[in-house]
Design goal:
Elements lengths: L1 H11 L14 E9 L5 E13 L2 E7 L6 H17 L4 E9 L5 E7 L6 H8 L3 H9 L16 E8 L11 E2 L2 E3 L6 E5 L6 E2 L6 E9 L2 H14 L1 E3 L5 H7 L3 H5 L6 H9 L4
Length: 271
């Protein structure tokens, strides 16, 4: 405490500190919210983003395999309360950490549409970008909270131009690209044959999203879609997802924000 105070005084001229509760094995769960200029406000359920490496999300799914209806309702109400308190307008995300007992704690609000928004669009059948445009034009939201019903399960994987294992960035030229297709499969990417990935930006090059009637079917559909996806000429993290989809914890939804890094230490990075 004293060393932290001294460091704060030297850096900021203020030695005041706050104590943050330590959560041993929490999940990272965020709620999508939408609010217009006329006081209309909704939340579109949660996204479980707990499969992370170095605090960067790797897999996102909705609904969370951890939340029950009661906890979802309580967290949704808290998300709307925070949105209202900030007098917020537009699409945003209220992010929480949730412990094993279902206690949840506010992390932050992202005042934008996030990378993982397609899983929310899939299970609710809405176009979040369209709603943003309506809000910006001063129109009402096109639906209310009572109109929203969860339909099935959706999963997204973030595909990066990185080595696996190692996770070093690998920019370069795409020699061949083939996106998977079929019912419930969506590929968001700007890739094409001959495209040169520059070295100056984030290594994210694509998002593969699947939607199915239930979680088991979504995992099976994701496995099939990953097998169809071709990105030739560079290294990507596709092999990571093939490996993860063989893990019992992924199939059961038994993971937290530390799970992936522990898995990498035990299965990959020491070999």
């Amino acid at each position: 405490f004293q060393s932290a105070r001294l460091e704060a005084e030297k850096a900021f001229g203020n030695g005041e500190l706050y104590v943050e509760k330590y959560l041993e094995s929490p999940r990272h769960i965020e709620f999508q919210v939408l609010a217009d200029m006329h006081g209309n406000m909704v939340h579109l359920g949660e996204r479980d983003c707990s499969v992370q490496r170095r605090h960067q999300k790797v897999i996102e799914e909705s609904p969370s395999p951890f939340l029950d209806k009661n906890l979802r309702n309580r967290m949704g109400k808290a998300a709307l309360k925070a949105t209202q308190a900030a007098d917020y307008v537009n699409a945003g995300t209220i992010e929480f950490l949730v412990d094993a007992k279902g206690n949840f704690y506010f992390i932050e609000m992202n005042t934008r549409l996030q990378v993982e928004h397609p899983v929310t669009e899939a299970i609710f059948g809405v176009d979040l970008v369209r709603e943003q445009i309506r809000v910006a034009a001063g129109q009402d939201l096109s639906f209310s909270q009572d109109n929203l019903t969860i339909n099935g399960h959706a999963i997204e994987v973030r595909i990066n131009a990185e080595t696996f294992p190692g996770f070093s960035p690998r920019p370069g030229k795409i020699n061949a690209y083939h996106a998977p297709g079929g019912l419930g499969v969506r590929m968001d990417s700007a890739l094409y044959d001959g495209y040169a990935i520059p070295p100056y930006y984030d290594s994210l090059i694509g998002k593969l999203i699947v939607h199915a009637p239930d979680r088991a079917a979504a995992i099976a559909r994701l496995s099939r879609a990953l097998g169809e996806l071709i990105i030739d000429g560079i290294e990507t993290t596709i092999p990571l997802f093939h490996a993860l989809l063989r893990e019992p914890d992924i199939h059961s939804g038994n993971y937290n924000i530390h799970w992936l890094e522990h898995w990498l230490e035990n299965n990959i990075e020491d070999k």
